[in-house]
Amino acid sequence: MVKIEDVARAAGVSVATVSRVLNEQGGVLPQTQDKVRKAVEELHYEPNLSARNLRKNESRIILILAPNFSNPYYSKVLPGICDVSRNLGYSTLIYNTYDSNALDESLVVSLFEKNRADGMITLAVNRDDRWLAKYTGKYSIVQCSEYVEDIELPHISVDNRLAARELVSHLIAQGHSRIGIITSANRYLSSTNRLRGYFDALEEAGLGEDETLIAYASADYSFVSGKQAARELLSLPEPPSAIFCVSDILALGAIAAAGKLGLQVPWDLSIAGFDDVDYTTMFHPYMTTVAAPCYELGRRSMLLLYDHILQKPGAQQEVYLPHQVVLRETTAQRTQGRMADKP
């Protein structure tokens, strides 16, 4: 079992300093606090917090609101949150909202009051949930992945608009000028920004917008709705030569729809996704996509929440983690009006 002396040794400080940091007694330089917290996390130190919690009227409970546990995106974010919360001595309660519309003001207030939670991480707020602004300063809340623009609650995400623009620009550079998009009718800011990024890339390349090339899948990005949306695009009199999907699950549905129509990906149709969930490399062709650092989003969101629980001076309000466009086997060069030759 890791002891407080082990944490002090790893951080290069005294046991008294570790104790002051853990008990939030102040008088410790910020950089020293960071060393202690890093040592706590790396050593998986779990102090006996019962007495301290009673003294300070803390619950040491963090609430996590997630819309769908089975979604492979959230299943990679949640471990990042839980690993850090455990190392910092917090228990986590994960509440399944089932869909973003179930997240409302009464739910947030009741969960805080019922559990006396010290903080909350939301994984799926709608872009118009502006009522959250009322709880700035009252509750410690961090918005992870999805967030409401222009309110003071902290959030952490990737730059969805930039990432989508980069991926669609890559398709254009491969010779595709008629590019479809499968987006969603949900109210997530990520869906809106990925659509904006799609338009940005078209405008940058001097390509006009075509409403017929926009297909809408279900709010939860279901595989079946991805298939249906792809069939709509591929049944156009002049179908696209490439399709950008705002999630990998939708892209998998589009690949299945193309196969049913006798089209080979990428030789007859290029398809790209977003998120880089595990399914993207489970079978060939491996998917071209945008890799979002899911585990790191979870890990950093808990560290950000911890800073706000402690009311740390200078705690960040807006964090964007780096993304990566990953080029694999579902996209190919299109030249002289036709796809590249098959191998």
Report what the structure shows:
The protein is built from eleven helices and 14 strands. With 343 residues, the protein is α/β, with parallel strands linked by helices. It has three domains: 47 residues, 434 Repressor (Amino-terminal Domain) (Orthogonal Bundle); 134 residues, Rossmann fold, CATH 3.40.50.2300; 147 residues, Response regulator (Rossmann fold), CATH 3.40.50.2300. The chain is elongated and about 70 Å long. It starts with a helix and ends with a strand.
Q: Could you please say which CATH topology of the largest domain applies here?
A: Rossmann fold
The structural domain count equals: 3
Range of helix content: 25-40%
> Can you say what the CATH homologous superfamily of the largest domain is?
Response regulator
Summarize the structure.
The protein is of the alpha/beta class. It is 39% helix and 16% strand.
What's the helix and strand layout?
Elements: H1 4-11, H2 15-22, H3 30-43, H4 50-56, E1 61-66, H5 72-87, E2 91-96, H6 105-115, E3 119-122, E4 141-144, E5 155-158, H7 160-173, E6 179-184, H8 189-204, E7 214-217, H9 223-234, E8 242-245, H10 248-260, E9 270-272, E10 289-291, H11 294-309, E11 318-321, E12 324-326, E13 334-335, E14 338-339
Parallel strand pairs: 1-2, 1-3, 3-4, 4-5, 5-11, 6-7, 6-8, 8-9
Antiparallel strand pairs: 10-12, 13-14
